[in-house]
Amino acid sequence: MCTDTIINRHLFQGKYGLLNMDEQKIIQVEQLKYEYPQSDGHLALNNLSVSINAGEWVAIIGHNGSGKSTFAKSLNGLLDLQSGSVMIDDLPLALDTVWSIRKKIGMVFQNPDNQFVGATVEDDVAFGLENQGVPRPEMIERVQEAVKRVGMLDYLKREPSRLSGGQKQRVALAGIIAQQPEILILDEATSMLDPKGREEVLATIHKLKQETNMTVLSITHDIDEAASADRIIILDNGQVYDQGTPADIFAYGQRLLDLGLDVPYPEKLKAALNKLQIEMPTDYLTTERMVDYLWTLHSKM
Amino acid sequence: MDITFQNVSYTYQPGTPFQGVGLQDINVTIPSGSYTALIGHTGSGKSTLLQHLNALLKPTSGVVKIGTREITPETNNKHLKAIRQKVGMVFQFPESQLFESTVQKDIAFGPQNFGVPIDEALARAKEMIELVGLPANVIDKSPFDLSGGQMRRVAIAGVLAMQPEVLVLDEPTAGLDPVGRREMMGLFEKLHIEQGMTIVMVTHQMDDVANYADNVIVLEHGRLAKTGSPREIFADPDWLTEKQLGLPTTTQFAQALSRRGFIFDQVPLTEHELAALLAEQLPKKAGRAHE
Ligand SMILES: Nc1ncnc2c1ncn2[C@@H]1O[C@H](COP(=O)(O)OP(=O)(O)OP(=O)(O)O)[C@@H](O)[C@H]1O
Ligand SMILES: Nc1ncnc2c1ncn2[C@@H]1O[C@H](COP(=O)(O)OP(=O)(O)OP(=O)(O)O)[C@@H](O)[C@H]1O
Ligand SMILES: [Mg+2]
Ligand SMILES: [Mg+2]
Predict the structure, then answer these.
(1) Does the keyword Transport apply (chain B) (predicted)?
(2) ipTM above 0.90, yes or no
(3) What percent of chain B has pLDDT over 90?
(4) B171–chain A Cβ distance below 8 A for any pair
(5) Given CB atoms, is B278 within the 8 Å cutoff of chain A?
(6) What angle separates helix B148-160 from helix B103-113, to the nearest 10 degrees?
(7) Max CA pair span of chain B
(8) d(CA B157, CA A57)
(9) Shortest CA distance to B121 belongs to which of B171, B152, B161, B73?
């Protein structure tokens, strides 16, 4: 009955445990502490330690105010940390490494308006490349490619601040995609896309990840986005509360709500059917397996 | 207070090379006391339409009737205060509506602006902080020194504090954690049911449309594509997919069940509807059924 969970645990240990020490860790943070100015001793990061492998897709979840955005900002040196260490691609984050580190990390902020610098979509997407000293012909090509990937080619000459919410998020993503960073951090970067648009954008990023072995950290409250990750890390009160594969984490059922993620649909339906006195298994079922289970049960009628 | 659009068009930056269509020939009524969901893909004109509901934008042509008040292209920007008080709006990006030095003052601004004495406005703000699930210690913080989801809650609190007749919400749960999302949706529903508040909500979450709305407006390229009840709108999955809009999770799940062999004589929209339809076709638990 629980083979699924056992297999998942096993995979989990193989992937993140002692068995594979030599897998390259691209992000290693240890015991981060951070307190925002004037916050009366409240630690937004409270002894946070975590490590992430190169090429991994990690979803970061947690309730509002749990420290997700603060953690993201700590990685490229946007915060003056009280203590702890950040290591990116074997470089310890410090004054003399911060610029090299920022080149490796592309971050899409929670509010795209905080991200725009260019007067037109085209200029905005080109900005990061210009900074990296990418030659002009290559730059033009990369801008076109990135804008095309997010479906905004018709808007090249438009002012980013005069776009709809979802269009802004697409442009913000294009700006980062164009830079082809080694590490891509998405801070709720698809929260205002329509369902189809979100699917397309995530597929685009998955594809890019495959092409370039990019590492992806996606901060999200969206269950589907979390489900497509290799690993889910749950933050609570500035610390890592728990982590595991999506199947491990989704098995928490109703408890997921307190941890900052919605309950997967099959779990919701299970609860509703349980109330109606229909026998339901306790382990986590994907949509497919839930459909199979219900059909098998139906044939027993 | 009904809000009616008559032949409303809106053009952004008219007369410039950047001129762009926001809305085109919209004719629609948002009935008083309705819970109206406004859906449509990115750039379809949802936020543009919302901003006409409290005259933040005025039509380039046509008329918007807000209760007895008529807004036309010629309407003077003065004397709109009464409308702004009756129609409260939470913007798509909450940061754009926060501005005071502390969370409490920010929430109290609306009521104070509409004549509530300062002490009462501040007291109301304090209540609202709790109501929207903000930690009590944010009260004297700057609203900009908050997390994304916390800012969203402050913006919602500020509008609720004005006690509007019509609550206009542009993707109000984006950025909220799932508990916050549920609580906030529950709060809006309660205001709708208990106080008869009219709710107009832009959302990409078809589950929310199915669970809460009684009226749906679909926009496409600035034009009205369809209106109807959620059941009418979701009855045609192919049409919705063509318009880049999804289906409620339940409806999708029921489609998967149908492919496997289940037969439903009605399209289920919520998990409880589906569970009830399924229960008729499944064996009940044996033994200790009641506890
Ligand atoms: N600029 C700031 N100044 C002071 N405190 C802040 C600031 N930004 C965030 N905080 C506080 O730090 C804590 C962590 O915030 P953070 O933005 O990292 O949360 P989050 O997990 O990203 O939340 P959300 O899901 O709402 O975006 C919260 O208690 C928040 O109030
Ligand atoms: N300030 C502006 N200036 C010029 N054009 C604008 C402005 N705001 C929006 N537009 C354009 O008007 C159209 C409708 O935008 P609107 O913001 O109403 O879309 P929306 O349906 O709310 O989309 P989303 O779901 O992405 O928020 C879009 O094509 C957009 O680019
Ligand atoms: Mg955040
Ligand atoms: Mg919008």
Answers:
(1) yes
(2) yes
(3) 88
(4) yes
(5) yes
(6) 20
(7) 75
(8) 36
(9) B161
